[in-house]
Amino acid sequence: MIRKQTVQLLNLRPYTKTGCNDLYREINKKFRSLDELELDIKTNHTDPEALNKIWWVLNYHSEMMDQSRRLRAIVETRLDSLAENSI
To answer: pTM for the whole thing?
Structure first.
């Protein structure tokens, strides 16, 4: 889960599954593997709201995309780092 302090500092909002459908389809078109998505998250994402939405997509589609919670943990770590840097 995303830490409560991180959510507050970055003013992150929850998304519904319906609100994540477009990003889910985009991710499936753009990335051929979860490793590609992981690399993209680690290197290209500095926008907290975009990372937050990716986290919700991974959460809602965990059976298909993130059974081990590895990608969500990476997003959570990125968000925590951005929150710490915003203080």
So the answer is: 0.93
Contact 23, 49 (CB under 8 A): no
Task: Assess contact for 51 and 45: CB atoms under 8 A.
Answer: yes
Contact 87, 9 (CB under 8 A): yes
CA 55, CA 62: separation in Å to the nearest integer?
A: 10
Q: Which two tokens stand for residue 80?
A: 């925590």
pLDDT of residue 47: 94
Tokens found for residue 52: 């937050």
Give the three-class secondary structure for 54: helix
Mapped onto helix, strand or coil, the DSSP state of residue 2 is: coil
pLDDT digits (tens, 9 = 90+) for 19-73: 999 999 999 999 999 999 999 998 888 999 999 999 999 999 999 999 999 999 9
